Each structure stands twice: as C-alpha cells, then as structure tokens.
Amino acid sequence: MKIMIPLSLLLASMVATPAAAQIIGADAAACAPGGGPAILAHVGGLKDRKGSIKIELYPANDDDFLADDNQLIAAGKTFRRITVATPAAGVASICIRVPRAGRYALLATHDRDGKNKFNFFSDGAGFPSNRKLGLSKPKLQEALIDVGTGVATTTIRMQYLRGVLSGFGPIKDN
After folding, report:
1. 148, 37 in Cβ contact below 8 A?
2. Which of 63, 77, 113, 142: disulfide with 72, CB 3.0–4.6 Å?
3. What's the rounded Cα separation, in Å, for the pair 48 and 90?
4. Mind listing the pLDDT tens digit for each residue in 15-35?
C-alpha cells in the first residue's frame, strides 16, 4: 500500500526550524545561559540594512532619561551604549549588561547615515513599549524595563518619520 503525502506537507517538513538569532554586541556574553543581569533586545522593523544600531541604557527617571551621556557618566549615573553594525538580514538581537537588578530606561536607534548623531528625517528610534511615537518627545514610561538577576528580554520595533504631520511610526511592510 502506497502512502501519499501532500507536497505542501513534504516541503514543510524539509524546512529547517530557524535557529535562535545570534546575540551580538560587546556584552553578548552577559546574555549567555546563566548570565545577567542584562537585557536582550530583539530589534526589528528596520527600514533597511544601512549603518548601525545603538542600544542605550539610562536611569529610570525623567531628569536623566535621554540626558547627555557625558553628564550622566560625570555624575556617576547609569549610562551604557552598545553599537553594532546593522545585520544583513533578520532581527538584531543585542545584549546590554546592566549594573544590577532594577528598573532602567532603554532606547534603540538606527543610525542609517553613519554620522553618529540622530537625524530626525532619516534615522529610526524604538523603545520597549512599541507605542507609536508620533511627533512628541518620547516619554519615560515608553522606555522602562525591569531587569532581575538574569536576562530580561524585550522586542523593539523601530519607527521612522512617516510624514511631517503623522510623525514617527513603524514601517507598514515589516
């Protein structure tokens, strides 16, 4: 007796399960099993594969959120930045270690032009909340993430300027 398997099932069984995304960045070891405290940010929704992606860690208060990094460091406050080349495909899984368990603010940016300064008209930004940013300055609540003694995981969908009136939002195709 012959058993007939539909071609679609046969093809589906031949497709390998996607491997876990490679964790990148200078702090990648902090997100290895048993590592931490750290944040593993899966950054997706990229407009293109140009430039670099930055993850920045700030104290979880309104006065220090998005403050100048030099001032935060000089004052002995939490600030950390990880910069990676934009991967050729897929989601960028970036690890950033944190000084201790607690609440932090996290920002992701896509520096498309490579000038290392945020370009409102071309670069992207994202936060753990994934709320549409619009035209207003991001609020602390959109960036908050709680980290225990291990690795906290978040998914960030990048947002880009979609028009002068509509502001920042995710790319519709992604």
Report:
1. yes
2. 77
3. 11
4. 333 345 799 999 999 999 999
